[in-house]
Design brief:
about 200 residues; alpha/beta; Rossmann fold; 2 domains; 5-stranded parallel sheet
């Protein structure tokens, strides 16, 4: 292993900082917007696919949807609420990753994100202090588990696929990474970095 790639949601980030629950848990109480409605009208439509692969911008597209389903709610308010309530960091994993990075292993985030949240993760949450960079879907133009995501990330680090290790919580992403040649481990609740490292060394 010459480089470690780490997924974000479900690995490093787990919902609300206060309790780990989904950021939409109190969405209707706090902003008057039903979770099922925003999921149906925004996240489960081609709108989100275009945004998360960099073909459309988050705020104006979200604003157009909210104008129909929640006219009194601004896109900026919802985005702020989303990012702030979907930022619970796994501090134990971050500590373990920092110790590994101190040995000279470069580390990158490898995640499906649109531009705004990718910047929030690196700048506002301070993940730029723990990682050498981020590869994300809106930057690359492809989402995991598309093979193009792994190909482009591999090209940018400039090493062989077999020299890249990867942890992710989504089985399809793990399978796609392995098919491309990365050493990949499925991250589940209770997983430990030391276990992943032992797997990668086999």
């Amino acid at each position: 292993m010459k480089v470690l790639m780490v997924d974000v949601d479900g690995v490093l980030v787990h919902g609300r900082p206060s309790d780990g629950l989904h950021y939409c848990t109190d969405l209707e109480r706090d902003l008057g917007l039903r979770r099922d409605l925003i999921e149906q009208e925004f996240f489960r439509t081609p709108h989100w696919g275009d945004i998360v692969t960099g073909r459309d911008d988050l705020e104006p597209r979200l604003a157009s949807v909210l104008a129909k389903i929640a006219p009194g709610l601004s896109a900026a308010t919802l985005i702020d609420y989303w990012f702030e309530n979907d930022s619970g960091l796994d501090r134990t994993l971050l500590t373990d990753l920092a110790a590994l990075r101190a040995t000279g292993i470069p580390m990158f985030l490898a995640t499906n994100q649109e531009h705004r949240r990718a910047a929030y993760l690196m700048d506002n949450l301070g993940l730029s202090s723990y990682f050498d960079g981020i590869f994300y879907s809106a930057m690359l133009g492809y989402q995991k588990p598309a093979s193009e995501f792994f190909r482009l990330a591999t090209e940018r680090v400039g090493i062989e696929p077999s020299e890249i290790a990867f942890i992710d919580d989504y089985p399809a992403n793990i399978e796609a990474a392995r098919q491309f040649g990365w050493k990949a481990m499925h991250w589940a609740p209770g997983s430990r970095l030391e276990d992943a490292l032992a797997t990668f060394s086999l």
